[in-house]
Amino acid sequence: MEHAIELSRIAKSFAKGELDNLKDLVGFESSRFRAVSDINLKVRKGAIHGLLGPNGCGKSTIIRIISTLLTPDEGNVFVCGVDAVAEPMKVKRMINRVSVDAPFHRKLSAYENLIYTARLYGLSKGDAQARMDYILDKVGFDQDVLSTSVEKFSRGMQQKIAITRAFMTNPRVLLLDEPTTGLDPQSKIKVQEFIRHFMEESDCTILITSHDTAEMDRLCDRIALMKSGRIIVEGTAGELKAGCGKDHSCVFELEDVGKASTVLSECEGVVEVERGDGSVTVHYRDEEYVLEKCMNKLLSSNVRIKHIDTRKPDLEDVFIALTGKSLHEDEK
Amino acid sequence: MSELGRIYGFFEKQVNLYRKFWVWEFTWIFYAIVTTLSIGLIGAGMNELTGGDVDTKEVTLYLLVGSIVWGYLAIVFWEISHTISLERWEGTLEYTFMAPVSRISHLLGTSIFALTYGIFRTSIVFVIAVLFFEISFGGMNMAGALLILAVSSMAFVGLGMIAAIFPLLSPEKGSQFNHIIEASIMMVSGIFYPITVLPGWMQVLSKFSPATYTIEGMRKAILEGYTIPQLMPYIKPLIILGVICIPAGILIFQQVEKHVKKVGNLKRNG
Questions:
Q1: Which of A71, A112, A116 sits opposite B261 (nearest CB)?
Q2: In degrees, to the nearest 5, what angle opens at C-alpha B191 toward C-alphas B188 and B196?
């Protein structure tokens, strides 16, 4: 099967300062840090593939390498079968990107910025206008402010223009580097819906980076978890969660905590029971009907249930299980 | 056809940017006018300054030619080299480099704007200087002067392309370095004085500056009415420098682009 993106043994390191860059230029030994190493990644055509990891783990470096903006020190990069290092122009014609910081010519209006992009990608003004209207409508952007300078927009509005700019060029491979950062929850959902919708109506492939686990879970067909410049595990969200060894849990709020604890600990499939103040937390394996059995037992033992709250393991749990750290530890 | 559209895209973007910054542009044009007139007035007051008896009209024209022509060449050089700095500040450089545009089209679009803007701004300064000093065009070879300007533009486009690598190489210091280059060219090229007054080693450097031939050739055409065949000693070196500088500019820029992609210097924060 031909893959839309194929990275093999990619490694990239950077000089630590500007002086080190100059040392590189004249061939002297410089002080360096390794941004990514031994990256192997295959993204199936038409899939949404996620790169999930904390800040500074090398996600954006991978995106830049695929975008032809960085040359890897080692390894190969192929986009739709084309070598991105040897034939960057062919790759550029197939890709576009949304980056987290959405750069624009800020004094120019949104329309002027979009038309500029359209010209660089060889789109006619008419085609660009039609694509623009369609995408802006889908992402919920008020077209009345299209002639306003981008500098006057909120971060969320700028991000919607950045998304329009990337999708407008009809790329075969889209690189989305934290595309919904800065968006309010409602806009975030709109953009996520649009990404899914765009995927359905085109044969585009998306590589998306994020540290938003819910977003990755919702959008991605497959996810690669990254830490310290390496991919530590890859699979579907379901596979990753099932393989992390973390139990499902359910918190029962009820009156007779002691009796409930005894009853629940006898249920088949229950791994652990924790007694709390007015509640009992049950940890159980992801097996069918465990919860139903627990409820039936409680009801048949005349324990009255006030409230139930269930929790499944998420990608954050997977990351913690694999690394012992939270995805957001750096931010904290 | 789409390559022409891409070239036009760079031109149109620059036009739109300058429209948005019109107050700044008005300020720069006003400043250029005042500077040129002030320099011309030094010539007009030469006899009072020195107590001598010189043809002040000729001295004024000598200085005005230097000031106006240098103003034009400096705009062309600065506009091309500055575009990269501007894109760095905006953070859009990565997007420009990611777009499917050949570097030749990119630099060509930028250069066409630089030339157009240079002609526009210099024309305003020129017309005002002509009116202010009541310059008559009798005895001048304007066609020859324009030919020299056209040929020298090519050399300065090439120099601008070469200078554009510095903001690529160093996000922090590249733009400042270009100011130093521009000032050095100005000093050795005899903009406001004959090259013969320069120290010997500077006179050697002046031979490598396209501005030297441009200014000298323009003075010969405007002040002495040299014909085009008589201007050939100035036109030929400019053609040679243009033929060298433009391909060299494109090649060097492409090599530096490869280097910055290797070291990861395209990013906004370098």
A1: A71
A2: 60
Domain membership of residue B166 as a residue range? 3-263
The answer to whether the Cβ–Cβ distance between B100 and A15 falls below 8 Å is no
Contact call for B95 and A116, based on CB within 8 A: no
Please tell me the pTM assigned to this model.
0.86
| Tens of pLDDT, residue by residue, chain A (332 residues) | 679 999 999 999 988 776 766 666 667 777 788 899 999 999 999 999 999 998 889 999 999 999 999 999 999 999 999 999 999 999 999 999 998 878 999 999 999 999 999 999 999 989 999 999 999 998 888 889 999 999 999 888 898 899 999 999 999 999 999 888 878 888 888 888 888 888 888 889 999 998 888 889 989 999 999 999 999 999 998 888 887 777 788 889 988 889 999 988 888 888 888 898 889 998 887 666 888 888 888 888 888 888 998 888 888 888 888 888 887 765 44
**Residue B270 maps to a domain:** no
| A145 CA: distance to closest CA in chain B (Å) | 17
Interface check B261 vs A, CB under 8 A: yes
Angle subtended by helix axes A155-168 and A110-120, to nearest 10: 20
This model of the complex carries an ipTM of 0.89
Q: Contact A104/B270, CB-based, under 8 Å?
A: no
Q: Are strands A205-210 and A48-52 parallel, antiparallel or unpaired?
A: parallel
Hey, is the C-beta of B55 within 8 angstroms of any chain A C-beta?
no
Is B103 among the domain residues?
yes
Number of H helices, E strands in chain A: 12, 14
Residue A79's φ and ψ, nearest 5 degrees, are: -120, 120
Task: Using a CB–CB cutoff of 8 Å, tell me whether B224 touches chain A.
Answer: no
Q: Are A248 and A312 contacting, i.e. CB atoms less than 8 angstroms apart?
A: yes
- Cβ pair B94:A103 closer than 8 A: yes
Q: Considering only CB atoms, which chain B residues are within 8 Å of A92? A: 98-100
Structure tokens at A124: 């006619």
Give SS3 for A226.
strand
B269 domain residue, yes or no: no
Angle (deg, nearest 10), helices B56-90 and B142-163: 30
Q: In A, which residues are within 8 Å of B99 by CB distance?
A: 92, 117, 120-121
For chain B, the domain total comes to 1
Tell me, yes or no, whether B157 lies in a domain: yes
| A264: CB partners within 8 A, 6+ apart | A252, A270, A273, A280, A282, A294, A297, A298
Q: CB–CB of A120 and B99 under 8 A?
A: yes
Contact assignment for A21 to B265 by CB distance below 8 Å: yes
Distance from C-alpha of A106 to C-alpha of B29, rounded to nearest angstrom: 23
Q: Is B99 on the interface with A (CB under 8 A)?
A: yes
